[in-house]
Structure formats: structure tokens, C-alpha cells
Design brief:
The protein is an alpha/beta fold. The protein has a 4-stranded parallel β-sheet with strand order 2-1-3-4. Helix 2 links the parallel strand 3 and strand 4. Helix 2 runs parallel beside helix 3. It is globular and about 35 Å long.
């Protein structure tokens, strides 16, 4: 019996992923490389990634642009795990925008 596992991407420069099922990247650029290379089912994003590492919001703006440009693009399930409350609100707005574009 073949069990298909979800591809999971964890973006955080400090916190470890919840389990070994997650691919762990520490910069926005590395997350974008992974998203271009493989089709992820779930991503979980931190916002603050350290100096010159970008942000989780950068990843969301990429996904938002891809969904807008390419109706065939399948956005992953997006989770936000940042402790930055101001950034979380902005990131959740981007997630809502992505969902609106993919549900129409």
C-alpha cells in the first residue's frame, strides 16, 4: 500500500520544524528556490529571518504573483507561525488574497 506523504516546507531561521517530514529552509531565497524546484502541499512561514535573509512575506508576494499570472498554478496550504503580530496580520492578508484568487 503506497502512502503519499505531503511535501512540507518550513521557513524559519531559528525554530526547528515540528517533525522530520518538513524540509527546513532558513532564508526567503532558499524557500523560493524550493518552491520553484518542487511542488509543496504545505508551507509554514516565519516572518523575521535575520539580516539579509528576506522575510516570510517575501515568499507570500511570490506566491500571490504566481497565482495571479498563472491560473494553473497550485498554491500550497499556507500556515503562518511568526511571533511578529504586525507582520502576521499583513501575511494573513496576503494568504486571504491568494485564497480569493484560487477559489474563483
Amino acid at each position: 500500500m503506497d502512502l503519499e506523504l505531503d511535501m512540507k516546507l518550513w521557513l524559519d531561521d531559528v525554530r526547528l520544524p515540528p517533525s522530520s517530514e518538513w524540509v527546513w529552509v532558513k532564508t526567503a531565497l532558499d524557500a523560493l528556490k524550493e518552491l520553484r524546484r518542487s511542488s509543496y502541499d504545505v508551507i509554514s512561514l516565519d516572518h523575521d529571518l535575520g539580516e539579509d535573509a528576506g522575510t516570510g512575506y517575501d515568499v507570500l508576494t511570490y506566491l500571490e504573483a504566481e497565482v495571479y499570472r498563472n491560473p494553473e498554478f497550485r498554491a500550497p496550504e499556507i500556515r503562518i507561525h511568526t511571533a511578529n503580530t504586525v507582520a502576521r496580520a499583513r501575511m494573513l492578508q496576503a494568504v486571504a488574497s491568494i485564497k480569493r484568487m484560487t477559489s474563483s
